[in-house]
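Supplementary Methods S3. Complex input for the beta-D-galactopyranose-bound model.
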Amino acid sequence: MLYGADYNPDQWPEEVWDDDVRLMQEAGVNIVSLGIFAWSRIQPTEGEWDFAWLDTVIGKLHAGGIRVNLATATASPPPWVSASYPETLPADESGATYWPGSRQHFAPSSPTYRRLAGELVRSIAERYVDHPAVVMWHVGNEFGCHLPMDFSDSARDAYRDWLRAKYTTVEALNDAWGTSFWSQRYAGFDEVFPPRLAPYSHNPSSMLDWRRFTSDMLLECYLMEREILLAAGATQPITTNFMGPFKPADYAAWAPHMDVIADDCYPDPSSPTRVRDSAFQRDLIRSLKPGVPWLLWEQATDAVNWRPSNPGKAPGQLMAETAQSVARGADGIMFFQWRQSRAGSEKFHSAMLPHAGTDTATWRAVTELGARLAALPELPPPGRDAKVALAFDWENWWAVEERDHPTELDYLAVCREWYGAFHARGIMVDIVPPEQVDDGYDLVVAPALYLLRDAGAGALLRFVESGGTLLAGPFSDVVDEHDQFRDGGFVTQLGQALGIRFENFGALGGASTGGSGVGAQGGRQADASHETLPLRIAETTARATLVAETVHPTTADVVADFEDGRPALTRNQYAAGEAWYVATVPDAAGIDAVASELIAASGVEPVVAGLPDGVEVARRGELVTVINHGHEPADITLDGVDWESGAAVGSRTLGPQEVLFARMPVAGTGPEASADPVLAHAPTA
Ligand code: GAL
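Predicted complex, serialized as structure tokens:
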């Protein structure tokens, strides 16, 4: 188990470094991510390099037995870069420049930025590639975090090249974008601009390509650095830190280029859905590389500094949140950052070593956590533990939240709500693109899968044909990969399996947004000001939100109706399986009731049945983790042995935030699971 933090010794005088290593040892730290924002210290001016300090730090860490995840330091260009090469600066939609003075002020597609960043990476790699302390490479940092989209002239030029490579002829682009509409027909690629400030809606098909392009530009920066590391002879795993469900970067497309997946997760202590949402994030991350453990690269020991109000964690919460990561596949637990900064924007952000020193609750929590993780017997790799898959797709996310639709819909919120119905019951869920659905699952939930590629539809159909249970809808199977309607109406791919015919989207009325719709990050959930419709599912009275579509069963049975008698939930036998359609976004009670029906129909089981509310359970091969996230003690019963003590568990009371790691054998788990420890995932070119 890796344990550690971002380490920024460049913020501190050399006198502190020995103390750092000593205290790291005391806390059980065995790895640090080093030098993530150290570009200006390594290369103070163009042509001037200073590695002496880094040599010293790495030497001290190595002597202290602390491994290094060495950063390529490219995330924050030094002042000389911005001053000498203004073409490296990004721009917003209106052409305004993002100036230096913060971080991430680079245009990802700027050839000059890439050249300078490349020189930095090459220098670092050549110097340290064989250093015995260096066990991993940390490329960039949270690509796109602050600046997911750049509209600069570099982006314009790169976008035109990207479109040329994708479409070859401008006629193909015109077809894909439907440019006969509103006189948008292009005569050449050089007439295309990024979607800069415009009087009204941009062409939605172009927006989809623009989002693909911006995700690709960030990925290209990563790949550029990765190739330099490989060329320098890197044999250590290479990766960058993801941010869970981060809309601008299609991590499903990025994942094959990461040797292991690393993720940053900062659950909002004030959010009533904190536990569910962080479980969703960890399951999404685990699902990106099935069978391979992942690394939690950043979490906070206590408060962060960047929300409007930043409460700390409750006693025990750090352990409970950490256990959730371990339970869902993490083999490394790390923090931002090691020593709390004394200057700069993040001086109020918690760290492993607080500014108030070691006589603090944070330091005690951190050292206790390190000791407990170090003592854990070896963990199994995450296996094929989930029988339920949630089909989650970035391209669909981009398309379904474009403006000018029957209703505005918050895709992530809808997916989390469905996920929550299974999470609350202790049922494991993988979160995968539709193409990755296979017959290893028993139940697949595909909410609001508006954009459905042929390959995704094919995988979903094969899944049903082979005996699986699928739920789709609402607003699913509406457009193709260009965000265009397909010939033949709607649900053209899944309609036969679903046994329905689609008539209309039936948007429910809502409060006016008072303008021309939502921005690029838009989307909403229904709230009290929006119309809802009563909906009865089995014994539950729920409400339909956002849409109440009109669908007609062809071969499907109607399971639930809207108040006006139209079908709200249908179920159709198809080949060896069944396909369900839900014609609305039910409220939480409704989603829960539909989930009950699906669980009964598919026979999927919880990891442990009968746990009290607020008690989370997850399986990772033989490891079953039970976490009491509640404020009261909780009684649990479980037929397994304590992973740490070896004693039989039986019935036990878990205090608030208490964690039980248990061993419970499982039949047939993890044929594809990797037995390699996470650091053994060496890169291949
Ligand atoms: C992350 C970032 C870190 C630090 C942290 C604070 O987004 O990678 O450098 O800023 O947030 O929570």
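DSSP finds 17 helices and 26 strands in the chain. The longest helix spans residues 204-231.
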